[in-house]
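Worked problem 6 (solution included).
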Amino acid sequence: MRIMFMGTPEFAEVSLKSMVEDNRDVVCVITQPDKPKGRGYEMAMPEVKVYALEKNIPVYQPETLRDEAILPLLEEYKPDVIIVVAYGKILPEYILNFPKYGCINIHGSLLPEYRGAAPIQRAVIDGKKVSGVTSMYMEKGLDTGDMLIKKELPIGEETTAGEYHDALAILGGKVLLETLDALEQGTLSPKKQDDSLSTYASQLSKAEGEIDWNSTNEQIYNKVRGLNPWPKAFSFISGKRFVVDFVYKSTQSGNPGEVISADNDGILVACGDGSVLIKEIKIEGKKKMSVEDYLRGHKIEKGTKLG
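Solution. The predicted structure is:
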């Protein structure tokens, strides 16, 4: 079965790797154009491109898919199926309708929950105890196609979005191979999604990272985990922005946003319900440090207001 693969970030690379290592016939890869990254804004290749080039798989990076832009590639490679994993663009109908076996997507949620761009992070932010991966046939709507195979994966109490992303990527590769096996054997049983149960996982923004200290400690705890490693949760102390990778819940209470205590154990901050303990912080322009180290050069009085 001739496979065209469309994907861009690390999550997609894991699925591509699973097919290559399983000796699937991946005839070419379509990925997003190189983009500037990091402080130096140097051009960087998508993870999928890096891996495909290592394996001598032809790579194409069209600026657009509109106006039948990649129809010549489809006609050249004649894929039997197109596998799409976190590609980053909506597929026009001419692509969806081209392959004999259609286009199959690997999505990081248990559809119809968390359709959209950030299903992994939203599940953690919402405090879900379990999510997973769904393979589905693609259609014109956003993640609305018929479901093929679903696999659950628990979300640990302290698991960050980054850690869950990595675990789901591996599960996604397994679901993809299982889906391809069933497709070849003619044993797939597509199931329509119940639109009434759907939820939307909107794209994350940097501004969303600001902590609302009126929230409960549970909500803040989940938000910090769900925004790690990007865009990170943050607040302000003495007018300076700081980010936190993780917090610990506490039952002590006080006025939301005020420091209850600040010592070598950390900064205890009151929330709308309970409080959270911050043990490490990264002040804007500085390296991440322990609160113990920070307090050697900065005094934080009880009652100091954050935000």
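Discussion: The longest strand covers residues 130-137.
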